[in-house]
């Protein structure tokens, strides 16, 4: 049954908070792709959260006193003692509020993904999941000849099988595709009913060509419900993207980190040879 707008809008806050099951997430994403009104509503709610974040961070009246946490902790510990049970009903709601505030702060302070990261997430959704790209993907060999010679490294790296604690990743496809005007080298893995993308694209940010390599896995904020991680090398960025929930995604991304780091090294070496 197709999701209706009323049902979709009831799920938007949970979607932003990354609380939905994978199946519900997919169904909602499908509805958002086809419904501009609900998509606009999602943007409005995200802007409201962003505004609340800014207001919270900029208002001196909302900042806790330096010893506030220690005082609350001490009082909470005291509240469980039999002789002071009368305080329990007063402080437990405060503790619950603090947990909510901590969760909200974690969401707000993670920041927003870069434009390139958003395009990488969009490429995963529209290429690997929906097959809905306006431009047909081409082989890595052709892309290397026409656009970026470093894409040849993706023909063998990462390998066809990558074993993780969450299961074995199997390569489903290797190609080059374009989303939002940006070209990617794309390796698609399958893990049970989930897809994991390894995407390589040029880093055209200021100073990218002269920066030292930073081949450590960086965790990015979830984008459109997708887990994301990245590695940087001189001139290129490698993204790992999937709809797996956080714990599984971290396991898979960490397993891919070694071949992805090797890929980044190969791309950097190839770039230096062709300069």
Rounded radius of gyration (Å): 22 Å
Structural class: alpha+beta
Proportion of beta-strand residues: 15-25%
CATH topology value of the largest domain: Protein Transport Mog1p, Chain A
Mean pLDDT: 80
Task: Give a short account of the largest sheet.
Answer: 7 strands, antiparallel
Shape type: globular
Flag low-confidence runs: 102-110, 208-212
Report the end-to-end length measured between terminal Cα atoms.
55 Å
- Count of discrete domains: 3
Number of helices: 8
Quaternary arrangement of the chains shown? Answer: single chain
Helix content: 40-55%
In CATH's first tier, which class of the largest domain applies? Answer: Alpha Beta
Describe the structure.
With 275 residues, the chain is α+β, with helices and mostly antiparallel strands. It folds into three domains: 5-56; 64-109, no CATH class; 115-274, Protein Transport Mog1p, Chain A, CATH 3.40.1000. The protein is built from eight helices and seven strands; from the N terminus they run H-H-H-H-H-H-H-E-E-E-E-E-E-E-H. It has helices spanning 5-16, 22-34, 36-58, 68-79, 88-109, 115-129, 140-146, 246-274; strands at 161-164, 167-179, 182-191, 194-202, 214-223, 226-233, 236-242. Strands 1-2-3-4-7-6-5 form a seven-stranded antiparallel β-sheet. Strand 2 (167-179) and strand 3 form a beta hairpin. Helix 1 crosses helix 2, helix 2 (22-34) packs across helix 3 and helix 4 packs across helix 5. Mean pLDDT is 80; it is low at 102-110 and 208-212.
What's the gist of this structure?
The protein is an alpha+beta fold. It is 48% helix and 22% strand.
